[in-house]
């Protein structure tokens, strides 16, 4: 570090999509941030692209210089692939740190790994924070939702930094300290499981309307946009509605028909299902969504099987209102399963998760932000029988109204193939 240069309040290691976006967000919020990367040429490119924000960025090459550029006690955010790369970086940087310093893993880590790392570093008087970050590149750059798991000591230091860059729902920053060690990463894992299930429900409605009712993508997109103006409002529904109106400029075909229909996955949905089953909790919707993603990747088998078994055999005759009610029921059940899994883990690990607060920090800057989260937060602030979301008066009433539509849609879908 150059002589006389002010030290940074936080360091970011890893200038990929998410790391660079978060670093720019910090710089724009007036936070002095040190940055470094394994491939050194990325550092200079990042600073150049930062433009005027570079005045709040302290670029460093090498771990020793990076660590030396930070105020103490140090806060270092790693935005790198989970698993072995994170263990390797901890091993490399821990000897350079001092008691009281904090390491943050901002990736999609398995919460068991986070608990193990936190326990190991605690023996060196170092703090380890597992932080789930939702919102993708856009959210990271302009305001993500962040789920923090770690010590009270670390949170006291992190709170002003993270609240400065978090998304806001009104005046409420969408970041919270949810509990110790792996609490933040577990909540993010379940968040991703809910995301899988909600996306699968949207995909299934599209399939029913496109193949069962012979509606073109643009018509279905318009329907989703209408739904997004009401109780079903959500980020995932909004972007799907927009996507279905796009046309591929090269072929002139709807963009959705040009996109390769094989979905990948990084493992968090699967982790949700595994933990739910281990704890004896139902995750049927999330499990079905994970399975559907796996099956979608079997492109060759699906195509060949359709030649033998045939495709859809009949027409769907469900009204738009019936479909909307069925989707509402599915969404409520999806969130209810997710929060039931969170409740079970909170009890097992004594995390004392605040379910209302979790719903609140998901309301902005978050991939699964939706209108239903206000109702979920309100429900958990009241008296829910046995903590079961589907038994909350508001949701019990809605489910009673919408379940008949869900049954109608499912039965017709099965009948029509």
Automatic annotation (TrEMBL):
Pathway info: Carbohydrate degradation; pentose phosphate pathway; D-ribulose 5-phosphate from D-glucose 6-phosphate (oxidative stage): step 3/3
Assembly and interaction partners: Homodimer.
Source species taxonomy: Bacteria, Pseudomonadati, Pseudomonadota, Alphaproteobacteria, Rhodobacterales
SMART domains hit by this protein: 6PGD
Chemical reaction(s) catalysed: 6-phospho-D-gluconate + NADP(+) = D-ribulose 5-phosphate + CO2 + NADPH
Function: Catalyzes the oxidative decarboxylation of 6-phosphogluconate to ribulose 5-phosphate and CO(2), with concomitant reduction of NADP to NADPH.
GO molecular-function terms, A-Z: NADP binding; phosphogluconate dehydrogenase (decarboxylating) activity
6-phosphogluconate dehydrogenase C-terminal domain mapped to chain residues: 184-417
The family this protein is said to belong to: Belongs to the 6-phosphogluconate dehydrogenase family.
Assigned keywords, A-Z: Gluconate utilization, NADP, Oxidoreductase, Pentose shunt
EC assignment: 1.1.1.44
One biological process term in Gene Ontology: pentose-phosphate shunt
A UniProt-annotated Pfam family: 6PGD
InterPro entries to which the protein is assigned, alphabetical: 6-PGluconate_DH-like_C_sf (IPR008927), 6PGD_dom2 (IPR013328), 6PGDH_C (IPR006114), 6PGDH_Gnd/GntZ (IPR006113), 6PGDH_NADP-bd (IPR006115), 6PGdom_BS (IPR006184), NAD(P)-bd_dom_sf (IPR036291), Pgluconate_DH (IPR006183)
Name the UniProt record assigns to this protein: 6-phosphogluconate dehydrogenase, decarboxylating
């Amino acid at each position: 570090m150059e002589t006389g240069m002010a030290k940074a309040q936080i360091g970011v290691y890893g200038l990929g999509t998410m790391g660079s976006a978060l670093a720019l967000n910090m710089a724009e919020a007036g936070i002095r941030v040190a940055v470094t990367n394994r491939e050194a040429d990325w550092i200079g490119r990042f600073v150049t692209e930062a433009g005027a924000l570079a005045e709040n960025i302290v670029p460093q090459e090498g771990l020793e210089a990076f660590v030396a550029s930070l105020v103490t006690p140090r806060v270092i955010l790693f935005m790198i692939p989970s698993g072995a790369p994170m263990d390797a970086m901890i091993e490399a940087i821990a000897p350079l740190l001092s008691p009281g310093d904090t390491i943050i893993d901002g990736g999609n880590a398995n919460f068991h790994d986070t608990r193990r790392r936190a326990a190991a570093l605690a023996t060196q008087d170092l703090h380890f924070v597992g932080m789930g970050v939702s919102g993708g590149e856009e959210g990271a750059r302009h305001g993500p939702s962040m789920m923090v798991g770690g010590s009270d000591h670390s949170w006291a230091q992190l709170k002003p930094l993270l609240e400065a860059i978090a998304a806001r729902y009104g005046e409420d920053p969408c970041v919270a300290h949810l509990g110790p060690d792996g609490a933040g990463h577990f909540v993010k894992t379940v968040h991703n499981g809910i995301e899988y299930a909600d996306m699968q429900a949207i995909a299934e409605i599209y399939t029913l309307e496109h193949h069962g009712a012979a509606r073109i993508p643009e018509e279905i997109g318009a329907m989703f946009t209408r739904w997004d103006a009401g109780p079903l409002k959500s980020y995932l529904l909004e972007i799907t509605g927009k996507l279905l109106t796009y046309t591929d400029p090269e072929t002139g075909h709807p963009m959705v028909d040009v996109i390769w229909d094989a979905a990948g996955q990084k493992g968090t949905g699967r982790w949700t299902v595994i933990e739910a089953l281990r704890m004896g909790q139902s995750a049927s919707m999330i499990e079905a969504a994970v399975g559907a993603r796996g099956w979608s990747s079997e492109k060759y088998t699906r195509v060949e099987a359709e030649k033998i078994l045939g495709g859809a055999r009949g027409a769907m005759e469900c009204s738009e209102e019936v479909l909307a009610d069925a989707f509402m029921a599915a969404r409520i059940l999806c969130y209810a399963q997710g929060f039931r899994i969170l409740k079970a883990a909170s009890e097992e690990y004594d995390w004392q998760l605040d379910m209302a607060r979790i719903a609140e920090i998901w309301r902005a800057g978050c991939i699964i932000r939706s209108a239903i989260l206000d109702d979920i937060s309100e429900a958990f602030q009241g008296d829910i029988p046995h903590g079961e979301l589907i038994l909350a008066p508001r949701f019990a009433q809605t489910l009673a109204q919408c379940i008949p539509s869900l049954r109608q849609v499912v039965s017709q879908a099965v009948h029509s193939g």
